[in-house]
Amino acid sequence: MAALWLALALPALAAPPGGETVKSVDQFQAGRDAFADPEKMPGAPLYQENCAGCHQGGVYKAPHRTWLEMMTASMLFSAMNDGMMQAQAAHLSREQRQQIAEYLSRQKLDSAAADPVPPRCEGAAARFDMDRPPAPVGWGHDTSRFVPAKTAGLTAADVPKLRLKWAFAFPNAMRARSQPAIGLGAVFVGSKDGTVYAFDLDTGCVRWTYQAKAEVRTAIILDSWAQGQAPARPLLYFGDVLARAYALDMRTGAEVWVTKVDDHSSATITGSPALHGGRLYVPVSSLEVTAPADPSYPCCTFRGAVAALDAATGQPVWKSHTIPEEPTEQGRTSVGTPILGPSGAPVWNSPAVDAARGLLYVGSGENYASPADGNSDALMAFDLKTGQRRWLRQTVANDAWNVACMMGDHPSCPKERGPDLDYAASPILAALPGGGQVLLGGQKSGVVHGVDPDTGALRWSTRVGRGGVQGGVHFGMAAEGARLYVPIYDMANARDGSKPTDPPRPGLYAIDAASGKLLWGHPAEDVCGGREFCDPGITAAITAMPGVVFAGHSDGWVRAYDGATGKIVWRFDTTQPVKAVNGVEARGGSMSGPGPAIGDGHVVLNSGYGLYFKMPGNALLVFAPEKGR
Predict the structure, then answer these.
(1) Greater confidence, 100 or 354?
(2) SS3 at position 607
(3) Which end of the chain has fewer CB atoms < 10 Å from its terminal CB, N or C?
(4) What average pLDDT score do residues 351-361 get?
(5) Pairwise CA distance, residues 222 & 226, whole Å
(6) What is the third-level CATH fold of 4-111?
(7) What tens digit of pLDDT does each residue of 394-410 get?
């Protein structure tokens, strides 16, 4: 998803609003210009003098400035006062630390206080029900994103009766990117400010909270067990944007372990880890793709990877890169900056586990610098036990791209100039009606591929969307048996300078997994009416249950589609303000990244994605069928 990071390279395009907690899209729009010229802020020279040497590529392990700009002022201030940067900031006054935090976050510290939290649970609402164990569905367990009827606790007839049960407004948030998980009568979810919450599913009261070291981007992954066989200490897992994986006690929120899975300054965890056989398989991506916006930055040194950790201890077991060899100098740009490659091929997606074959499947992104090699834009299979790569199938060749390619005749744009057609969606292993299986991969090209899971041999390819830098398949498809549901984003204006001749095809489509034949298509309805940052397509992951597919759109609406026909059977506008359980206004926006969670008779989703030309929001929304209807 490399192109989506342009807004970070050019902060004025997507900077957070000027200080106040984002309670509505209107407040976001009103505050857009509050930090229109951040280089005039007192924190700008302080940052350059005290921080830039390490955080702009000078120290390999230091988080790149890109990540610092995505954190809240309070998180940065805390890191300098009593966190990991305490020693480095010891010579600065409290006021200077505050100025640096406000400069990087574009947020006033004195207005970054958290909104009121929901009431703490008491009595029965505070107890975790061990007789309602989490089901092994969704990211972390099964990339098909299909929820069986028993787990869903809903039927297709229930879906039109869904009503909002309760909502939560994430504090100091303009985006909500951690997919919730349901289990033990609770909802578990992460947030922009790094807080992980355990809510009572029925009422929305809080059972516990935990403070991670950075934004939680991934889904929350829950241990699963058969009823009556609960482990002594059930755990949950997630990753943050600074490439740390975590394990917490599911019932108390107590930290069990934290492991940094990659030391690169731009490394992150975007795709949700996969849990299997006592191991946690963590995909590694990065934002180094934005760093070449600076012509003096030697691009690039990051290589995508998958790290296997012991799920009980967090200890590394193995780590395999998508590009086996270390990058070396390949030449110089026109301004004399070293070109380092091959590099890139990040893993944006959640790995798919194939226990029978002993394989782990992932998809890779583009190369960051020339030369483009055979590892980018590819489906790959790794040995579950050793991490050895078994096979690779590249579906788009010669794809080297970074943010410099969106900045005119920039010297750091690779000679290939894209086309930047990553695999962002997780591969899906689907069973076929006549026996056998097929591995399914959806790409930003708008093409879906079916490959042999044993060898990677290509069986079929079907074009579903127009595709492009901000087009095609983004964060997640879903499969119900041999019926594959494919969400297409296809922004009308990708804001990348491209001028495609084919019309966009945003919407939801279904294809036959055995043949690749298109079964039906439902073009997205356009309700945007010219609203800024509003697009009709589907960039978020989708979720299926028997006969129904739920899709959160970039226009702020969540829609449920009939699985057999594509007809819309339910819809809800998440951008409308609602009273949240923490006493303030919750209001959603564009949905991207996480998809709906379904379980115990509820549908739970996040809404709001105030980055990369999408509408901001701060809402966790919980739906259930209205009784008596």
Answers:
(1) 354
(2) strand
(3) C
(4) 98
(5) 13
(6) Cytochrome Bc1 Complex; Chain D, domain 2 (1.10.760)
(7) 999 999 999 999 888 99
